[in-house]
Amino acid sequence: MAQEIQWEGAQVTNDTALQDILSPEHARWTSLSNRSWSVVLHGRRFKVEVEKGPDAEGNATVRINGVRKDVRVMDERSQLLEKMGMSVAAAAASGDVNAPMPGKVLQVLVEPGHSVEEGQPLLVLEAMKMENVIKATAAGTVSEVPVNEGDAVEKGSLLVGFES
């Protein structure tokens, strides 16, 4: 699965494990433990340690030669949402769930007044001939569901609103 790491305005993308994501292909990685590596890049040696994370939003803290860096690890879904102008972190903060892409609502699984847990399926959206289960980004109480089964929705349309 392709992942991307972002920090201080920089980003690195790769299709393999975390150690490959953090540097170019020509770096030599030696595992010191399951969360730390010795890395030789351009003749220089670095110690890379994962201090914490990544959490549900992809935020992690790593130390490179003892210097702490806050990074964001994004899977393919998060990258797609970000590319389409949807931030997973922003959506989680508001609780409201918007359409990440244009599509057709196949099934609505909640209604106003329902209490939901983070990660609970809310509805099924068909987009690009694929069924996507849209899940709650945080626990809360549903305040509105302005869509119905069969509705066509545009990117960014409100699918499920939550009480503040």
Overall description:
This protein is mainly β and 164 residues long. It folds into two domains: 3-74; 84-162, OB fold (Dihydrolipoamide Acetyltransferase, E2P) (Beta Barrel). The chain is built from three helices and 15 strands. It has a seven-stranded antiparallel beta sheet. The radius of gyration is 19 Å and the shape is elongated. It starts with a strand and ends with a strand. The model is unreliable at 14-21 (pLDDT under 50).
Write the layout of secondary structure elements.
Elements: E1 3-7, E2 10-14, H1 18-21, E3 28-33, E4 36-41, E5 44-52, E6 59-64, E7 67-74, H2 76-83, H3 88-94, E8 97-98, E9 103-108, E10 115-116, E11 121-127, E12 130-135, E13 140-144, E14 152-153, E15 158-162
Antiparallel strand pairs: 1-2, 1-7, 3-4, 4-5, 5-6, 6-7, 8-15, 9-11, 9-14, 10-13, 11-12, 13-15
Overall mean pLDDT: 78
Residue share in β-strands: over 45%
Uncertain segments: 14-21
Overall morphology: elongated
Assign the CATH topology of the largest domain: OB fold (Dihydrolipoamide Acetyltransferase, E2P)
Q: Let me know the number of strands.
A: 15
**How can the largest sheet be summarized?**
7 strands, antiparallel
Total of DSSP H or I helical runs spanning 4+ residues: 3
CATH H level of the largest domain: which superfamily? RNA polymerase II/Efflux pump adaptor protein, barrel-sandwich hybrid domain
Helix residue percentage: 10-25%
Structural class: mainly beta
**Gyration radius over CA:** 19 Å
The CATH architecture of the largest domain is Beta Barrel
**Domain module count:** 2
CATH class group of the largest domain: Mainly Beta
Order of helices and strands: EEHEEEEEHHEEEEEEEE
State the end-to-end CA separation: 35 Å
Please give the oligomerization state of what you see: single chain
Adjacency order of strands in the biggest sheet: 2-1-7-6-5-4-3
